[in-house]
Design a protein that fits this description.
Layout lengths: L2 H16 L4 E4 L8 H6 L1 E12 L8 E18 L1 E2 L8 E2 L1 H21 L14 E16 L2 E18 L32
Parallel strand pairs: 1-2
Antiparallel strand pairs: 2-3, 3-7, 4-5, 6-7
């Protein structure tokens, strides 16, 4: 199995093991969730996004350096509330609540993944290097009834070697490398390579 697949599984494991009660890690594909479900518990989804390889990688077999990127989708929702139920002027909009929730959840996910104790992303020492989060992007606020939903993303990338098994080839003794010219019984007009 290629390292990028193992690293994706490890990122999901790291988030699941450290999420506490702050969010839920969705598996495989996004499941339809109502705004109230998302409001009670933010959602995080991890998937493999892209991979780039060294330009000087032309090896037929052996180790190839790659830079996989994993996209982490963050989804939160907020509902308008009153900080003082007797005073309508203390209303906090659903958009502001969702915005604050997104910031807090993005920070939490960032801190979990960038923690120095997880520098190898659960891979054997030396298999992962240059791990970093490239960006965090917040999407627009979408209204759904009395709720506001924000979906954003962050990309984490690293460097890891991938193994190319190559081809075992054939034994030299199985190769007959003669120039066969019809009518030349002595074989002096061509090239003959003797196998050892």
């Amino acid at each position: 199995m290629m390292n990028f697949r193992t690293i994706k599984t490890n990122i999901i494991t790291i988030l699941n093991d450290n999420k506490g009660t702050d969010f839920e890690v969705l598996q495989a594909q996004r499941q339809n969730q109502g705004a109230s479900d998302i409001e009670s518990l933010g959602k995080v989804l991890v998937y493999f996004f892209s991979n780039s390889f060294s330009e000087d990688t032309g090896a037929v077999n052996g180790e190839v350096q790659s830079m996989p990127t994993f996209r982490i989708i963050i989804e939160v929702a907020g509902k308008a509330t009153l900080t003082d139920e007797s005073d309508p002027s203390t209303a906090v909009s659903a958009e502001i609540i969702a915005d604050n929730k997104f910031d807090l959840l993005a920070e939490k996910v960032y801190q979990i993944l960038m923690n120095g104790t997880r520098i190898d992303l659960l891979m054997p020492k030396g298999e992962v290097s240059n791990r970093y989060i490239k960006n965090i992007q917040k999407g627009d606020v979408n209204s759904e009834g009395e709720h506001a939903i924000i979906i954003g993303q962050m990309d984490i990338t690293c460097m890891t070697p991938e193994q190319v098994p190559g081809d075992d080839g054939v034994l030299a003794t199985d190769i007959k490398n003669e120039l066969d010219i019809q009518g030349d019984t002595v074989q002096k007009s061509g090239v003959k390579i003797l196998n050892p």
